[in-house]
Write a structure and sequence with these properties.
The chain is an alpha/beta fold and 222 residues long. It has two domains: 116 residues, 3-Layer(aba) Sandwich (Rossmann fold), CATH 3.40.50.170; 102 residues, Rossmann fold, CATH 3.40.50.170. It has a seven-stranded mixed β-sheet with strand order 3-2-1-4-5-6-7, sandwiched between helices. Strands 8-9 form a two-stranded antiparallel ribbon. Helix 2 packs parallel to helix 7. The two termini are 25 Å apart. The structure holds 5-O-phosphono-beta-D-ribofuranosylamine. 5-O-phosphono-beta-D-ribofuranosylamine (GRF) binds next to helix 2 and strand 5.
Length: 222
């Protein structure tokens, strides 16, 4: 069912989010299918921003009728200038949450300060294990029996902010990076929408005094 035909059934107060992407956008698709197009969910993807014009995620957004923008580092003098442009488009979309769903570029302090406690990232490991670009390969190389998925607050340091939700994924004997990635993706596609749903419901609380403490009501986690 499209958004227009669902409009009468939608809850009164919508929760606009911006999703930042760089690649395939399978997690964006999960957000579209599970939240954006679900009449009973308040989450509305107001904007998808890609760091590269060739990101397939843009095609997914367009198919769902979601406005898109490309804010590429190459088109700006430096990262600070890129992030000012990025903050402008995100703010103009009225986003109450910024979701990094495969966004492959470091954000400046200035950008994060513009949306305090409102930027979350998705990472394919149980942080703080295996931050960075090769989390799945590194978990395999290390011989881990378990790895997993983390949705966490984004901070200036890569993959360093406190978790909102985490879920373990079993590493099987004989797993290849591809087979493990497939099972991790399945969890990501469920966990990221779950986290956004919790934000939309106002159920994620970051302790102002102890900044690494995040309260998420247990009964809402699964
Ligand atoms: C995901 O595995 C996410 O954890 C990582 O980048 C990947 C994005 O995948 N940060 P997709 O573009 O959503 O398919």
């Amino acid at each position: 069912m499209g958004r227009a035909s669902a409009s009468t059934a939608r809850v009164a107060e919508e929760f606009p989010v911006a999703v930042l992407v760089s690649g395939d956008g399978s997690n964006l698709q999960a957000l579209i299918d599970r939240l954006h197009l679900a009449a009973e969910e308040p989450t509305r993807i107001a904007l998808v921003v890609a760091s590269r014009p060739e990101a397939h995620a843009l095609e997914r957004a367009r198919r769902a009728g979601i406005p898109t923008a490309v804010v590429a580092l190459a088109e700006h003098a430096d990262r600070a200038a890129r992030d000012r442009a990025l903050a402008e488009v995100v703010a103009a979309a009225g986003a109450r949450l910024v979701v990094l769903a495969g966004w492959m570029s470091i954000l400046t302090r200035e950008f994060l300060d513009r949306f305090p406690d409102r930027v979350v990232n998705l990472h394919p490991s149980l942080l703080p294990a295996f931050p960075g670009m090769h989390a799945i390969e590194e978990a395999l190389a290390w011989g881990c029996r378990w790895t997993g998925v983390t949705v966490h607050f984004a901070e200036e340091d890569v993959d360093a902010g406190p978790p909102v939700l985490q879920e373990p994924v079993r590493v099987l004997y004989g797993d290849s990076p591809e087979s493990l990635r497939e099972r991790i993706r399945d969890v990501e596609h469920r966990l990221l929408p779950e986290a956004v749903r919790l934000f939309a419901a106002g159920r994620v609380h970051r302790d102002p005094a102890r900044r690494r403490m995040v309260q998420v009501p247990e009964e809402d986690e699964r």
